[in-house]
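tokens incoming
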């Protein structure tokens, strides 16, 4: 069932668990995520970055791929198809027109006023198609060019202003997490997280889920996080297995065997995250 993000994350916020957002990269990845989440009875958000969308052929290809898999594999859990870090109104509009059920507008590089204006424009357009919107504030960096100390932390008043003026469904405030592998210890500001959650009253999103300690994930959920993004963890799990398989089986050339050798590693990682987030057996 392809749905927007609202019900699944509002329920998670109320019941104190987090819905997993897994980034997808290809047909196999999407299939593994859907099958594992179905087995665990967990709702799921399929995150698609602009780079992944280009790699896979485009937004329409992805919408049709996901719809086809849901039907062929008889997937019954709620599935949300979501743009990850959409960088403009035009990108979000294109994804909405193609059939995505949720978008993230990331205008966090701009001033607060400009971020609010762009986000507002996306929300107005998205609401016409019952599409939900996530926005970012402060700036969540990438481990490659940032350390957790150098990111721009979100400020409580700014987050409240953005949420009130734009009517977004979820917000991702930068509070210390980064994308990719952390350089040094990850440090999250839980006090601010709780304060933001209490004032905005909508689900918070935690980006950069790879490399955080289990206790940090659990505390985040208690502080109002209801969606956690995971990308790098699955990529590492998959690529380690595929490299090993190729080394051990140098004569194999069937792509299904090579690509598929990473299947179990991805599935195990997904199940581990679902249990950690507490989203199993919810549907
Ligand atoms: P990681 O790659 O650190 O898991 O972060 C994923 C993410 O936040 C995608 O938006």
């Amino acid at each position: 069932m392809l749905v927007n993000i609202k019900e699944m994350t509002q329920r998670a916020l109320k019941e104190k668990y987090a819905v997993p957002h897994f980034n997808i990269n290809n047909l196999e990845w999407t299939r593994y995520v859907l099958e594992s989440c179905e087995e665990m009875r967990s709702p799921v958000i399929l995150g698609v970055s602009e780079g992944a969308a280009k790699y896979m052929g485009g937004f329409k290809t992805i919408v049709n791929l996901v719809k086809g898999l849901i039907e062929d594999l008889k997937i019954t859990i709620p599935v949300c198809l979501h743009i990850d870090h959409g960088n403009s109104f035009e990108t979000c509009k294109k994804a909405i027109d193609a059939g995505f059920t949720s978008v993230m507008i990331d205008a966090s590089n701009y001033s607060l006023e400009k971020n609010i204006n762009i986000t507002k424009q996306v929300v107005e357009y998205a609401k016409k198609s019952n599409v939900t919107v996530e926005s970012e504030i402060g700036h969540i960096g990438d481990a490659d060019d940032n350390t957790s100390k150098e990111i721009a932390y979100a400020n409580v008043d700014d987050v409240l202003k953005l949420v009130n003026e734009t009517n977004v469904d979820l917000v991702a405030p930068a509070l210390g997490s980064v994308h990719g592998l952390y350089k040094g210890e990850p440090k999250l500001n839980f006090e601010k997280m709780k304060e933001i959650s209490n004032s905005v009253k909508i689900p918070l999103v935690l980006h950069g889920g790879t490399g955080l300690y289990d206790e940090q994930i659990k505390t985040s959920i208690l502080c109002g996080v209801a969606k956690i993004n995971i990308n790098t963890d699955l990529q590492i799990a998959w690529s380690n297995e595929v490299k090993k398989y190729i080394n051990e089986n140098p004569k194999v050339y069937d792509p299904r065997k090579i690509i598929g050798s990473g299947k179990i590693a991805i599935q195990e990682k997904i199940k581990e995250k679902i249990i950690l987030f507490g989203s199993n057996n919810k549907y």
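note: Residues 232-248 form the longest helix (17 residues).
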